[in-house]
Amino acid sequence: GRAIEVMNCRPPSIGCRIRDQEETPLFKSAIDYSAANQYIEAHYNQRTYFESDSVEEPIFDGRLLQARCGTVNSMLTSNGFAIVESIAPMEGNDYSDLHAIEQNYIPELERVLISRYGEELQHSVFWNPMLRGESYEIAGDSSSVATANIASLVHIDTDVGAHADVNEFLDIVQMNQVSSNRGGSSWVDDFEQTRKAIQEGRRFAVVNFWRNLSSGGRAPLAIMGTRYQSGGGDIAFPDSRPDTSRSHWYIFPNSTDQEVIVFYQYDRDSRQPSDLWHCAIQSPCDENSEPRRSFDIRALVVLNEVVKNGYDRFREDRTRPGLSFEESGCFCDEQAEERKNRNM
Asked: CA-CA to 138 of 20 to 30 Å: which in 14, 169, 310, 332?
């Protein structure tokens, strides 16, 4: 499963020929689709959503793709992911203090959202902060930042359309929310306004902010630039499979503590690339790098825009899973336990 080609473990030079290098992969790495296939078969009765459980995939340079797009917003609009520079890190790179994150880090991310959405942004709430490391176990409570091991299996973080209704989804957000230092309304007020806005058909999205806390590029975050197959129905998960001829895997080599990788986990508007499959992968830089540590947090954003019926993924007649929310939780717990026992 190790990468089979050697890459330069330094950022690309400014004068590189973007198009030529973007078409040449940095290296190849084993991508494990097995957990994703199991989830989709159990929930949506689709076999072999991904054609194989494990594939040696070419890994491309996201920095070069973004340079071709020109701006962060163009990259996000076209591909659903981007890297944002000049995001001040926490003092001492310490992301274990929830209060400090609320006071110092969330305002940095709010500026990213404002830059992205401008006056269209109606509501936002940050939730599910997570410290990940190769030696970490799943732990945490409401007063601290949760920890977990790195996720080496292909996944999406949240299957928004699987929830029975907007209240069930917002309950999850509320249980894992992080307070904002911007003042203004309480979450109770925000909950009612957000619920009403979504029920009125307003566009909403789940955006992930991922930050590398280690040096050397070990076990980097890889994101599939997902393009879904078109077959006359919805062109999005779970109704459509990724088009493997147009969907490619990307990393941002040597992401620093001054950068944040932003990617869409969900968007109500099917025209926005989202539901981006991702995982940690092996890299040629792994052997000479310190163990990976990273911090990620999600944002629920609600916009003023009303999604047109033909593009609305959260409509009442959307595809629903065969498992209830509770049954899905049991499935995921059993799946995680099985993987843990297999690796012991």
From this structure: 169
* Half-sphere CA count of 2, side-chain side, radius 13 A: 7
139 vs 60: CA distance, rounded Å: 33
**pLDDT per residue over 80-124, tens digit each?**
999 999 788 788 778 988 888 998 899 999 999 999 999 999 999
Task: Indicate the length of the chain as a whole number.
Answer: 344
pLDDT at 186: 52
Query: What token pair was written down for 51?
Result: 């054609």
Query: What value, to the nearest 5°, has the Cα angle with vertex 184 and ends 179 and 189?
Result: 80
* Residue whose structure tokens are 């825009």: 305
Q: Which structure tokens are listed for 176?
A: 């894992």
Rounded CA-CA distance 223/207 in Å is 14
Assess contact for 198 and 314: CB atoms under 8 A.
yes
Dihedral (Cα; 88, 89, 95, 98), 10-degree rounding: -20
Instruction: Of 220, 195, 224, give the one whose Cα is nearest residue 210.
Output: 220
Give dist(CA 274, CA 237) in Å, integer: 9
Return the closest-CA partner of residue 210 out of 270, 276, 272: 276
List the one residue out of 118, 113, 72, 109 whose CA is nearest residue 301: 113
Spatial distance between the Cα atoms of 197 and 200, rounded to a whole number of angstroms = 5
From the number of C-beta atoms within 10 Å of its C-beta (0-12, 13-18, 19+), residue 253 rates as buried
Q: Which helix (H) or strand (E) holds 64?
A: helix 62-69
